[in-house]
Design brief:
alpha/beta, flat, 4-stranded mixed beta sheet, 5-stranded mixed beta sheet
């Protein structure tokens, strides 16, 4: 794996999955249907790659093979080639591709790519010549066909790699509806929504319903399959606490096949929704990393060459090297204050989990970043603003130093480094992001602020702060205080979500192991090592023997 792939694993993943090599804006709204989300991500893929004729041919192949186009076309495609001759046959000046099947006697099929987006509403439509029905063609927009083809290929691989109880034909039929723009109308939206009936398992459905028969003897001797063909109705007691089911099925017949169709549709829609949410989270996190990289120009984040001798000595001799691969201080960092910080970090880190790769710790003035701390995944670096908050933000009356963001930034580090894949992008964390996003939707925050706060790694780091403070009972100067956690971005973790959040962090093995040891106040200790100031250090680097006592901070 190259150095760039190590620094930007999400970019590498997007390139491998879809061929995406660039980034642009992608915004999904909470009320977007599954159809709209699928279309937006397909268009995003098209806009962020460099494509050639072969890419379009591959996309068309995926588009045809992975969707059931209503006639269950089982013909095996041998090749797809761009064919100017097809333009003459179909009398069009648009790019035309010929589909060659293994069966040489198959009907001739062409695929027309519209480069001008004039055929948006006809995406995926089939046509044939009235006077020559052996010549058929499919029409599609160039951008959507490319994006759909890439999405369908990867989505089908994920579907087939998991054990699914739903027939493949049903899955392909839904993929066709998602990629055929005649289903864009609101009247079709129910096709992409989960239903209350489909959320019932087989056992729940059979328990909550009873067969409709005039005589109990009609049930005698009938096997399970025969009983399924008898119409059923919901028991009144089963609908008492289920408003959605009662609305549609109270006093009405419901066939077993109706439940089965609804159940399979829910399974398919849920699978596709989870896939698209995961893809969107990757895009958002990738954009988050890109924005960080833009803020952290390489020269600004390399070790400075003009560090004065006293500061260099402190950096070289710091006891924090056992926890970090490199320590860097600005020349104007208060070395006496750093002594207090160093001992507090050391006391905390003796209990905190470490990933395989140590990260870099830099104490600097963040200047225009207007942040108390940052974690940059591509540089594997935690940087802290080593000034008081009131100096960083003039409109703030707080007296907390930037070091209070240490736990938040360390949460980012754990997110990225405890696993080969960010923990915040794994399936078991996704429901927490979804609920957090719903809770934030009721706030008065701007859309851009909500977009930032709901980036997966930001939810993870903020959740890790709350877990450390409320569940593990950690206190000190390296974590916020109670008033910080009354802010809207923390209150969006309501009581129900906090319970689920804390349970999530309790299940991470590395955190479960150290949690009992984190119920400490890292600012409370009697002695610290001798503190050096620039005046204390002479040319030989010797330090007068001194002992400082740090007052408790509550």
């Amino acid at each position: 794996m190259s150095e760039d792939e190590i620094k930007h694993p999400l970019a590498t993943l997007m390139k491998q999955k879809y061929g995406v090599t660039k980034q642009s804006s992608l915004r999904l709204n909470s009320d977007d249907s599954l159809f709209v989300v699928f279309r937006k991500i397909a268009n995003y893929i098209y806009k962020n790659g460099e494509w050639n004729d072969q890419d379009y041919a591959d996309a068309i192949k995926s588009y045809l093979e992975n969707t059931d186009r209503g006639n269950t076309d089982k013909r095996e495609i041998a090749s797809i080639v761009k064919d100017p001759g097809g333009q003459q046959v179909l009398r069009t000046n648009r790019n035309t591709y010929t589909i060659n099947y293994e069966d040489k006697n198959s009907k001739k099929l062409y695929f027309i790519l519209d480069q001008d987006d004039k055929s948006w509403s006809h995406q995926g439509d089939n046509y044939y010549k009235v006077y020559d029905p052996n010549v058929t063609w499919v029409i599609g927009n160039q951008n959507y066909t490319l994006g759909y083809g890439k999405l369908l290929n990867d989505l089908m691989q994920e579907w087939q790699s998991t054990k699914q109880e739903v027939p493949l034909e049903e899955f392909k039929a839904q993929l066709y509806r998602l990629t055929s723009h005649k289903y864009a109308k609101k009247s079709w939206q129910t096709q992409f929504q989960e239903t209350a009936l489909g959320n019932l398992s087989y056992q729940e459905f059979m328990t909550m319903t009873e067969p409709i028969v005039e005589n109990e003897e009609d049930l005698l001797g009938k096997g399970p399959e025969e009983l399924k063909r008898i119409s059923r109705c919901f028991k009144a007691s089963a609908l008492q606490n289920n408003e959605q089911l009662a609305k549609h099925y109270l006093g009405r017949r419901v066939r077993f096949r109706s439940w089965q169709t609804a159940y399979e549709a829910n399974q398919i829609n849920r699978f596709i929704k989870n896939y698209l949410e995961k893809t969107y989270n990757i895009v958002r996190q990738q954009r988050y990393e890109r924005d960080l990289d833009k803020q952290t120009h390489a020269k600004s984040w390399e070790t400075k060459k003009n560090i004065d001798k006293a500061t260099q000595q402190i950096m070289d001799r710091s006891s924090l090297h056992q926890y970090f691969s490199k320590i860097e201080l600005d020349n104007d960092v208060d070395l006496k204050a750093f002594g207090y910080f160093e001992d507090e970090v050391k006391r905390l880190m003796s209990h905190m989990p470490l990933a395989n790769d140590k990260n870099i710790l830099r104490l600097r003035k963040l200047g225009n970043h207007r942040a108390l701390g940052m974690y940059v995944p591509s540089l594997d670096t935690i940087v802290l603003e080593f000034r008081k908050q009131s100096e960083v933000r003039k409109d703030s009356n707080g007296d907390m130093a930037g070091i209070s963001s240490f736990i938040h930034e360390y949460g980012h580090y754990l997110d990225y480094r405890l696993s080969k894949w960010p923990l915040s992008l794994e399936n078991n964390f996704k429901p927490l992001i979804m609920q957090y996003t719903k809770n934030l939707a009721n706030s008065n925050l701007s859309d851009s602020k909500v977009e930032y706060l709901t980036t997966p790694t930001e939810v993870f780091a903020r959740g890790f702060e709350l877990w450390s403070y409320e569940s593990a009972k950690l206190r000190g100067n390296l974590i916020g205080r109670e008033k910080e956690y009354s802010a809207v971005e923390y209150q969006a973790f309501d009581s129900s979500l906090r319970e689920r959040l804390f349970n999530y962090f309790d299940q991470i093995p590395q955190l479960k192991e150290v949690k009992p040891e984190l119920a400490i106040d890292t600012s409370q200790f009697e002695k610290v090592k001798p503190l050096e100031t620039k005046e204390d250090l002479n040319d030989t680097g010797t330090v007068p023997c001194q002992v400082y006592t740090l007052n408790n901070k509550n």
